[in-house]
From TrEMBL, chains A, B, C, D:
Pfam families: Thy1. Pathway: Pyrimidine metabolism; dTTP biosynthesis. DUMP binds at residues 109-112, 120-124, 204, 231. One of its GO terms (molecular function) is NADPH binding. Binds 4 FAD per tetramer. Each FAD binding site is formed by three monomers. It catalyses: dUMP + (6R)-5,10-methylene-5,6,7,8-tetrahydrofolate + NADPH + H(+) = dTMP + (6S)-5,6,7,8-tetrahydrofolate + NADP(+). Its cofactor is FAD. This is Flavin-dependent thymidylate synthase. GO terms for biological process: dTMP biosynthetic process; dTTP biosynthetic process; methylation. Its EC number is 2.1.1.148.
């Protein structure tokens, strides 16, 4: 991540401006506010605004006139109860807004989460930065042999070198040709006065999917936690998980009680089907069980044994 | 509206608590924060939180690192441009949360606006207040003779008196029977120890639709303006319009530039079909025009002449 | 449920009309189409249109040019995999539309599910039917002593009789006064020509929450299953559960593979937190465990033991 | 557009299968069903399912037991009234599902419309086709000099030739390197057994934004019309407009009354602010008017004069 001096100044100015408010404030999140947390090689996530705190969840659940909070352990108990029993509306009462810089192929996964507000930097109006995501060597993975959508071993040696060369060269060449077609420099300065330059909305099509874009993304806490439960998961693609993990830190700072409940009842939780639960009960009763005759497919049996920390047999 | 002493204390305490924040603040809205603005006979609207301001609209439209604002007249011009051309996403970057007390039949209209977050006071858990909406005499209108969903003349004399008596008596009797079935007082004190009391989730069905409920309602500025454009309109039912008008004042305090643009390009605006525009052009060219042969139905012709401030002929 | 002869004729005519289509059809659902399935004392649910079938889920998951289906057991395996791993978008490719007649207090719970399309019968334009929900004696439950939102014992004897009398009398009286204020009969015939009649949008406020309304409600299969998982659950209020159960039958007829997967992985499933799973593993390893020292609250411990079919100790 | 023989067979088989249904059917849309309508150089739109028709709009607006329709001209009048007064919910009762093949940069604009269901072909699992959008010479426009997001003159001569060469070569080279990194052929055949091949979820980042993707996209008629009003507009980028125009034909076939109303009251309509309307009235009264003193900015004045077909003076 390389912020320009001008961008750094803008961020510093925003951080320096402080005012008084009657709204709830969260000191731990104020401390992070506007700061760019680096993600991948040129990306970042930064919180640019927020609304509400742990108490706002309790306040809405109780539809109260004041803050609606009671003893801290009662509030904590209520928040854990709401999370455990999937009462989603009180968590919708908190809202957060991020500024994110991210590769286009990550943006395409991210945007599938529809319950959010988005303003993306427009390549119809503006010129994109000369920045592309190139995986670090330890993330250069082969296709998984067992999982059609997963990664396998890390590539190394000449194969890794060749991949990195191709990614770097193709992204750079395509970007150079993008500017050439625009007949502009990266900062918008015109080049050859004898040419008109291709429309920006057309020239952008020559860019690669690892080019960086950026957006303002705003959502409520319930939908954010849903996003994080999918994207901070081990099955998510590493590149989007890196963003989710940075955002987890902002949630921990913002709403510590809700975050703890989320970690316990969502992130770390497992769901067992009726049939799976029946097998667990039989195991607890000391009965021998095996995949055959269990009513579970081989795949489900493997999933269950994994959850129980047992050998699939 | 009669807030209890305890509720007033809670509100006063919330207003008195002030903290420091790096987030944008809006002094005119801070001044209103938490205060209950009376609506109808027992209802209110009060702002309980907000996020963003006029500058946040500009900031998102420009996807900037800092506040993103420039000279005030440039910002104003951009906001007006965005409103005029129905660019909705920058307005979604501002969020507001209200606490509203309102009759159930109004709540049923309101909830049709789906793009919002709601936590309603639950009559499955709790006992509703002994408060019912009774129209003021000047709002006691007859059915319109010309418009199937509108109001006509104001009722008066014995007919008005009879209506008010019925509304008052029925609501009060049904509420008394609600408590009797619950075997509880309004404050939850048990009554006759020899009876169990009907479940709250069942007893509530005896209440009338003018009983008051309350909720926390949170939405973004774009969706709020859409709500207001429909509900502050002269064709909206008076009772929901009363809420919309109170909320208009909060928007004016919160985002004055966006509010002004909304007033000019939405509230006061008219939409002309291609055929209507053709007729306006012919009128401007001095041609005589009449409904017959205009391609407009009689109803559309009347609507057009009304917009032009002319006699429908 | 009492459909008028005219309504029955309209339904019969709709059922009799048959056409040819290239779209997928589901014979078991066609057999139910337009039929009113009775719910509660005067309500019903009827399917009025649908789009897609089990194969449409598979087709979308594979983004195929044709039907996209393979051997039935491969399709079934894919649908079960998608359900188990909460891949929601393929289930969104099926859509269904219901016509529902339901008490207003049930409609108010139902409408909280925002991801649906709704057209409700308007009491601003029209007169509601003279029908109110009165619980059958076996559903006349007392407030639960242990669960603030649940039901306890069934009321009987004079207390039950009194409740039923109050519900019946209040609803009927308020309806009679509603017509009196309207100065109309139930069928819209004017009454006393010397009076104007109160506007319909006002008079409706005198009705009780057990009056019946009706609406067209349309949603996709993913959101329908989410609705059913909450509303067909034992913790849902009986009156809305009755609707959910009728709708379950329509889903079973429509998409039998998706329904079976839903039943196994959602309805019958349980979710265990990380801490709960740790305790299950310790139990399986033969360790003695107790609430104290388990890291679970008393309430969570009780929930876990219940899931395992054990005494909470 | 080049469908493979296998794809053509799948489509032909789907078209040949016909069944009986009690649901409303639309012959003109059935005739189009499953057929791929070509868009751009390799893209297409095809309708793969639909639900409802013009009568379904009327039926929902009237909440009827049968088809709910009356005389055709009454239905037409009601649909036009609903469209003119922006009653959106009855139009939500119709649903349509498309299969679309489109360049990634177009998909990125399209996906901003959030109220739809989408299943996209996954480049984490599968290999994308070797197809890229290359603009036809008549669409190779320069950046507009007056409008920051528009197109200006058509490029020609050596500048056009150079642009086309760059677009073609870069897309092809990057695709070749994509396969090389995957160590696979376009059809998934492995290449060099001594190499592992980069994970598909990573290799895709080397593709250009004019590569084609495909998805199933399903939405209701109200949201579809909103999409079309923005994307079939002259200000929309040509490449997405080409899709919108093909979809317009499907809407015309499907719901001809709603389509006609949409064309009259949305597509061809103009919205005038209160200030603009004031000026029109003054013009009709014969008063001279000029931008100066009109209360309109120069930009708004120009927009108004354009709508009135006058010289901006």
């Amino acid at each position: 991540m390389a912020l320009t001096a001008e961008q750094q100044d803008e961020i510093a100015a925003a951080r320096a401006a402080e005012g008084r408010t009657r709204r709830p404030t969260v000191a731990a999140l104020e401390a992070l506010l506007f700061e760019a947390m680096p993600v991948l090689d040129h990306g970042f996530v930064r919180v640019v605004d927020y609304m509400g705190d742990d108490a706002a969840i309790v306040q809405a659940a109780r539809v109260s006139y004041g803050r609606g909070t009671r003893a801290a352990n009662e509030d904590r108990g209520l928040i854990r109860y709401l999370m455990r029993h999937r009462h989603s509306t009180p968590f919708e009462m908190c809202e957060i807004k991020y500024h994110v810089k991210l590769p286009i192929f990550v943006a395409r996964q991210w945007i599938r989460h529809r319950t959010a507000n988005v303003n993306e930097y427009s390549a119809r109006y503006s010129i994109l930065d000369r920045e592309f995501y190139i995986p670090a060597p330890e993330h250069l993975a082969a296709q998984s042999a067992v999982n059609r959508q997963g990664r396998g071993d890390i590539l190394d040696g000449p194969e890794a070198a060749r991949v990195l060369d191709l990614l770097r060269e193709d992204a750079a060449r395509n970007y150079d040709h993008y500017l050439e077609m625009l007949n502009e420099e990266e900062d918008g300065t015109p080049r050859d006065p004898s040419r008109q330059g291709l429309a920006r909305e057309l020239a952008r099509m020559n860019l690669t999917l690892n080019a960086y874009t950026q957006w303002y993304w705003k959502t409520d806490l319930h939908n954010l936690l849903h996003f994080l439960s999918l994207r901070a998961d081990a099955h998510a693609q590493y590149e989007i998980r890196a963003y989710a993990e940075a955002m987890m830190e902002t949630v921990r700072a913002w709403v510590p009680m809700a975050f703890e409940a989320f970690r316990d009842y969502r992130l770390g939780a497992v769901t067992l089907s009726a049939q799976m639960m029946g097998i667990v009960k039989r195991m607890l009763a000391g009965e021998p069980v095996a995949q055959e005759g269990s009513g579970l497919s081989r795949r489900e049996w493997r999933e269950l044994m994994e959850m129980l920390g047992r050998d699939a047999g």
